[in-house]
From TrEMBL:
Species this protein is from: Sphingobacterium corticibacterium
GO molecular function: isomerase activity
PROSITE patterns per record: PROKAR_LIPOPROTEIN
Keyword field: Isomerase, Signal
SUPFAM superfamilies: Xylose isomerase-like
Residues making up the signal peptide according to the UniProt record: 1-29
Pfam short name (any one): AP_endonuc_2
Start and end residues of each Xylose isomerase-like TIM barrel domain: 72-287
InterPro entries: IolE/XylAMocC-like, Xyl_isomerase-like_sf, Xyl_isomerase-like_TIM-brl
The UniProt record lists the keyword Signal: yes
Name the UniProt record assigns to this protein: Sugar phosphate isomerase/epimerase
């Protein structure tokens, strides 16, 4: 789809929305459904899995987070340890989750048509706990564990990746955390399981004053997962999330670099701002992203 055609469609949809006599939620939904039918899911054409990190909705239960993710028209979720399951279950979403709790999570996912693709950011205190984390992930169908292992645990994680056939992706928090720059991640991956890679957080790179496109290039062939965000400032650790495509992230260049590398993992929307009502921010970011991606592939 050409960009001018896409923009025209959005304009028409907006006019249609304004012309709705009642201004009801159902009328809005009809217009959005029409727009989505035309846009489709452009991420599928490049084999990307667009979803959300449940931490975005950390003030709510996992069940409530799924409602919000579903309403943002996303079909994948990255769960995080510690979130209350909800829907009548007060357990936390960790490897200690009971069989009843696990069954409930599976039902909630199926009811929302959302796939649990990743789990993190999580760490084990020793080999035994790492094993429990991997066993839990395998039982829940998780494909990627996002983590920041201690240096002495890297070989443990590498071995467990092979044993459980699960990928482990090293995540970067901002400087001065251990893995804040790509060179440290690359050194950690050297000589270890090919199932280990990087979970790149483009926003945290920006907070650390690193060019996200250059960082992606340095990690070529190692990128398994991404925490995706756009920020209002560059090089400022206090920078906050804004709608994708409206901040300092060179989003078009990031999209093109991921495409060039044939990235085929999950992009987790992680919107850590406006915590009490950020579903609307995630939904708008997703719409912006799909428009930009559709324009770049046509």
């Amino acid at each position: 789809m050409k960009l001018n055609t896409l923009s025209s469609l959005i304009l028409v949809a907006g006019i249609a929305l304004l012309s709705c006599s009642s201004g009801t939620t159902s009328s809005t939904a009809q217009v959005e459904d029409t727009l989505q039918d035309t846009l489709g899911y452009p991420e599928e054409h490049v084999n990307w899995k667009l979803g959300a990190q449940a931490y975005t909705f950390r003030l709510f239960t996992f069940a409530e987070a799924l409602d919000k993710i579903d309403s943002a028209d996303l079909r994948f979720v990255e769960a995080f340890p510690g979130q209350i399951v909800g829907a009548g279950n007060e357990e936390k979403f960790t490897y200690t989750l009971s069989e009843e709790g696990r069954d409930l999570v599976r039902k909630l996912l199926a009811d929302h048509n959302i796939t649990l693709h990743a789990f993190g950011v999580v760490n084990g205190k020793d080999a035994e706990e790492w094993e429990q984390i991997f066993a839990f992930a395998q039982d829940m169908g998780v494909k990627v564990i996002n983590c920041e292992p201690k240096e002495e645990h890297l070989d443990i994680v590498s071995t467990l990746c092979e044993k459980y056939d699960i990928r482990a992706a090293i995540h970067n928090h901002p400087e001065p955390s251990t893995y804040w720059k790509p060179e440290v991640v690359l050194a950690a991956l050297e000589g270890r399981s090919p199932k280990m890679g990087a979970a790149v957080d483009v926003g945290h790179w920006m907070r650390s004053g690193l060019d996200p496109v250059e960082c992606l290039k340095k990690l070529e062939g190692k990128i398994i997962h991404s925490h995706f965000k756009d920020l209002n400032e560059f090089g400022d650790k206090k920078a906050h999330d804004v709608h994708w495509g409206t901040g300092k992230l060179p989003i078009n260049e990031v999209i093109e670099e991921l495409k060039r590398q044939n990235f085929d993992g999950m992009l987790s929307a992680e919107y850590e701002y406006n915590w009490e009502n950020n579903q609307i921010d995630v939904a708008q970011s997703v719409r912006n992203f799909r428009e930009l991606l559709a324009a770049s592939t046509n």
